[in-house]
Amino acid sequence: MAYSQAQPSAPLAVPAAIISPQFCAAYPVDLAVVRKVLTLADNFSVTDINGNIMFKLKGSLLSLHDHRVLLDAAGNPIVTLRRKIMTAHDRWQAFRGESTEPKDLIFSLKRSSMFQLKTKLDVFLANNTSEEVCDFKVKGSWFERSCTIYAGESSTIVAQMHKKHTVQSIMFGKDNFMVTVYPNIDYAFIVAIIVILDEINQDAKQN
């Protein structure tokens, strides 16, 4: 792309393109997350409201819970998600492509506190090395699929989850829910957060 995009006169309250500008839309994006409860591998996919695959998850059975790769619709790896072992607050890191090099870090995520009944997670972008104030915060109930993602410590909502009951979800054991990503927010970034949320929840169930 030879030309640069015109910058808005006022800075955005939240950084829009975190993974890539291609995942930012000027309108709200509704995504359906389909989780096949009864399978072990490739059990997580994200579609648009028409059922077209937008993202898939790849993970080997040997490292199912600490290393996952998010693929786009064409099967290209866009984010590698890795759990840091031996951390008290369930810290995860997200890297570009299939890298796990520090230079390719996009963001990290951790629980706000060790013991919590409700979901409360802090997200720090890679350039926020001090981690004194989070860049995004996740609050709500993962069990009820009613989490909201906010910009930093503000009340500005960037994405919301809500449960989706369908005939298919009842018949085929699929754990479906919808995510609405607000305009100009990187929806691949939001999906990456939701994948980590799901992994943390699966670990909690097994402990």
Which structural traits does this protein have?
12 strands; disordered N terminus; single chain; 12-stranded antiparallel beta barrel; 207 residues; mainly beta; Porin
Structural summary, described in words:
This protein has 207 residues and is mostly beta strands. The chain is 12% helix and 36% strand. It has a twelve-stranded antiparallel barrel with strand order 1-2-3-4-5-6-7-8-9-10-11-12.
Mean pLDDT, to the nearest integer, reads 79
Main sheet attributes: strand count, strand direction, barrel closure: 12 strands, antiparallel, barrel
Could you give the count of β-strands? Answer: 12
- Indicate the CATH class of the domain at 29-114 and 160-206: Mainly Beta
CA gyration radius, whole angstroms? 17 Å
Which range best describes the helical content: under 10%, 10-25%, 25-40%, 40-55%, 55-70% or over 70%? 10-25%
User: CATH homologous superfamily name of the domain at 29-114 and 160-206?
Assistant: LURP1-related
What would you call the structural class?
A: mainly beta
Count helical runs.
2
Shape: globular
Q: What is the percentage of strand-forming residues? A: 35-45%
Unreliable residue runs: 1-15, 169-173
The SSE string, one letter per element, is EEEEEEEEEEEHEH
CATH topology category name of the domain at 29-114 and 160-206? Porin
Cα distance, first to last residue?
Answer: 49 Å
Strand arrangement in the largest pleated sheet:
1-2-3-4-5-6-7-8-9-10-11-12
CATH architecture of the domain at 29-114 and 160-206: Beta Barrel
